[in-house]
Design goal:
The complex is a heterodimer.
Chain A (H helix, E strand, L loop, with lengths): L4 H10 L8 E3 L2 H11 L3 E5 L12 E4 L2 H11 L3 E2 L2 E2 L3 E5 L5 E10 L4 E7 L6 H7 L5 E4 L8 H9 L5 H21 L1 E11 L5 E3 L3 E4 L8 H4 L9 H8 L3 E4 L4 E5 L2 H13 L6 E4 L6 H13 L5 E8 L4 H14 L6 E7 L2 H10 L8 H15 L1
Parallel strand pairs in A: 14-16, 16-17
Antiparallel strand pairs in A: 1-6, 2-3, 2-6, 4-5, 7-8, 7-10, 8-9, 10-11, 10-12, 13-15
Chain B lengths: L9 E5 L4 H13 L2 E6 L7 E2 L3 E4 L2 H8 L3 E4 L3 H14 L3 E4 L6 H14 L2 E3 L5 E4 L3 E4 L8 E8 L3 H12 L4 E6 L10 H10 L5 E7 L4 H12 L4 E6 L23 H10 L3 E2 L6 H8 L1
Parallel strand pairs in B: 1-2, 1-5, 2-4, 5-6, 6-7, 10-11, 10-12, 12-13, 13-14
Antiparallel strand pairs in B: 3-4, 8-9, 8-11
The chains are: A alpha+beta, B alpha/beta.
Chain lengths: ~375, ~290
């Protein structure tokens, strides 16, 4: 789960990291009021789950409250990479002497949290990694001991020469590591970490990505989820225990297991169709899950045929069959449905479907070809 | 022979009285797995299915039965501790089926297991089956046949699909390992490839990967340098849009790293025959065996 900048910086602040004053606004008038309270030039920043806000015009400098109102008005409601801006963060404009990058990420290769710093901050870190990898410094952290003081100092010396700034940055890095752990994050980033002309070291931006698997034990983090910024069908699916991602094609896919779901989408494409979605109904699927899945898929106007691909293991084919039959009674499914089932309780499932007037196939390739053909005929 | 599990495997089931644990313990027992004990705190002294003794702790279970492997079915919030407990009790193989284990917990679990010299398979995996010998986990036994193909995969049901096709066409399996879809896992492709290369029963290998990360690329390098047996590969997620999580925590592609195209190219470069669709596996194996 991605957090917004204003949420992430609140968590960093709680961990002791110096962040500028400021507040979040949902209206232009609120933005004006915040700028008035701050009593100086401000920066108005769009709060959306994507990078490149600055380039898209989602970050603006305002010299007074009236201008802050104008900026907020322009930014609120604007689309950045398909996402609508619902909130802006208003912070004091900071004089910047230098910009660095500080982050911590769970690294698959070393299987540890890795602290990463770069004196080339304020820009996309992937770009720095690609163009000037020598400007990135990494240090794997032993999770049993955490980020040790001398390690943080070593990293901070990669950024600054001035000892007082080095010490400040080292403290911030250790605080960032703690915030990362407490949030159950898979990524925590300060980009940029700036020095001011007075020699202060401040986090000007903050990014936290939380491991979804941590949310059930962290209600304070889970409640930060901004469902307004997500696709409504994806939210509905998640709440039903499904994993759904909307795509642009015509063949609606309903599959058990992420790998098989991806392989099914690939096969749709292989036979000349385009998948309308990724949908994994998960293991031990109840009939209710299937009903929700089918209703989500059939609501998508671009779907011209629906393909079920179920390999029964923990998932019982009869559960899925019951779900399909129940759903067909509850909702109007306008397009043809192709069902492929094999594995646990397959025979039972075929019976259930037959009684309700559905046919079931057992071969994956055959089912995909049929679904692609039906979608093409309906288009 | 087979890899990781065989007729000598003496299994403890952690979470034997739970919904998933009890269902799959019955499945494993009917497949012929030697299940010597179960563990559920507070239920020590009971017997599962009138046959398998249940203990309160792993140490009790291992001490009383001499178990050498464990399988974890406990809910995700207890799973990391269950793995530590199994390692402390002295088993040499732990298979964690549970999904939803936080990645940060795995960063603590994995170095500890390395120090203890314990093999972990998973988490978030379907487990291991050596057809005709033993099954630890949830891979449906009826789709497998004893034979000479080693199967290693990051996915669950996609693995079943491919095993099913192999069995239907007369290609039995030495061992099938589902290594799990999470970013941090105990046993990776290379561990399995190394074991299959050394296993005399295995004559050919099928490797099933996904988008996300670079494990498949590393596996390809290993195959090129160290594997003499024919290898056939598949990558799921050719049509996946970048930057989205596709169910498995591991199946996420950001930018160019970890795309299906990249992985398929790495496979081909290493001499791995790449299936464009799962049904091609049998033909590709036939040409190479």
């Amino acid at each position: 789960m991605n957090l917004h900048e204003y949420q992430a910086r609140a968590l960093l602040k709680a961990a002791g990291i110096p962040v500028p004053e400021g507040d979040v606004a949902t209206t232009a008038d609120e933005a004006k009021a915040i700028a008035g309270r701050l009593g100086q030039a401000v920066v108005v920043k769009a709060q959306v789950h994507t990078g490149g806000r600055g380039k898209a015009g989602g970050v603006k400098l305002a010299k007074d409250p009236v201008e802050a109102r104008k900026c907020a008005k322009a930014i609120l409601g604007m689309q950045i990479k398909g996402l609508t801006v619902e909130k802006v963060l208003v912070v004091p404009a900071t004089d910047i002497a230098s910009e660095s990058y500080v982050g911590v990420i769970v690294d698959r290769a070393s299987q540890r949290p890795v602290m990463m710093v770069s004196p080339a901050g304020g820009v996309d870190i992937e770009e720095v990694a690609a163009k000037t990898p020598e400007k990135i410094f990494k240090l794997p952290v032993d999770p049993r001991f955490g980020l040790l003081p001398h390690q943080a100092m070593w990293l901070a010396f990669r950024l600054y020469d001035d000892l007082s700034q080095v010490r400040k940055a080292a403290v911030i890095m250790r605080q960032l590591y703690v915030a990362f752990l407490q949030a159950g994050a898979s990524l925590a980033e300060i980009n940029p970490l700036v020095t001011t002309p007075d020699g202060d070291v401040i986090a000007l931006d903050a990014k936290l990505v939380v491991d979804d698997n941590e949310l059930d034990r962290r209600p304070n983090i889970a409640q930060l989820r901004d469902t307004a910024s997500e696709e409504p069908a994806e939210v509905e699916a998640r709440e039903a225990g499904l994993s759904y991602i909307k795509l642009d094609g015509q063949v609606g896919c309903c599959v058990n297991g992420a790998g098989l779901a991806m392989a099914t989408m690939d096969l749709v494409k292989f036979y000349g169709g385009e998948p309308a979605n990724f949908l994994d109904i998960g293991g031990s699927s109840s009939p209710e899950k299937v009903v929700t899945a089918l209703s989500i898929i059939s609501r998508d106007p671009s779907v011209k045929s629906i393909l079920f691909n179920i390999f029964g293991g923990i998932t019982r084919c009869d559960d899925v069959a019951n779900g399909i039959v129940t759903a067909a009674k509850q909702i109007a499914i306008a397009c043809p449905v192709v069902i492929r089932l094999t594995g646990t309780n397959e025979d039972l499932a075929v019976e259930i479907l037959k009684d309700a007037g559905f046919e079931a196939l057992t071969d994956m390739d055959e089912a995909v070809q049929e679904a692609v053909k039906l979608a093409r005929e309906a288009a | 022979m087979s890899i990781f599990i065989d007729t000598e495997t003496k299994l403890v089931v952690q979470g034997i009285t739970g919904r998933d644990g009890s269902f799959h313990t019955r499945q494993m027992m009917s497949y012929g797995t030697t299940v010597v004990a179960g563990v559920t705190p507070g239920k020590g002294g009971q017997r599962f299915e009138d046959a398998v003794p249940v203990f309160d702790t792993m140490v009790d279970a291992v001490t009383a039965t001499g178990a050498n492997a464990s399988v974890v079915y406990v809910p995700s919030r207890f799973a990391a501790d269950a793995i530590f407990e199994a390692a402390d009790a002295g088993v040499s193989l732990i298979v964690c089926i549970t999904e939803g284990v936080p990645v940060l917990e795995m960063t603590r679990v994995l170095p500890y297991l390395r120090e203890c010299g314990v093999r972990l398979i998973g988490p978030n995996c379907p487990g291991v089956i050596s057809p005709g010998k033993s099954k630890v986990g949830i891979i449906p036994g009826q789709i497998c046949r004893e034979g000479e193909i080693g199967v290693v995969s990051r996915s669950g049901t996609l693995t079943y699909e491919i095993i099913h096709q192999l069995s239907q066409h007369g290609y039995g399996q030495s061992t099938c390992v589902g290594i799990g879809g999470d970013p941090l896992i105990g046993t990776n492709f290379i561990d399995c490839l190394e074991a299959f290369e050394a296993d005399p029963q295995t004559k050919g290998i099928v490797i099933i990967g996904e988008i996300g990360g670079t494990d498949e690329q590393q596996a390809a390098e290993f195959v090129a340098a160290h594997v003499s047996k024919p290898v056939v590969g598949f990558i799921a997620g050719q049509t996946a849009p970048p930057g989205r999580r596709m169910g498995h925590a591991g199946a996420i592609i950001s930018g160019s790293a970890g795309t299906a195209a990249e992985k398929m190219a790495a496979f081909e470069q290493a001499g791995i025959a790449v299936m464009k669709r799962p049904a091609e596996g049998v033909d590709l194996l036939e040409e190479r065996l």
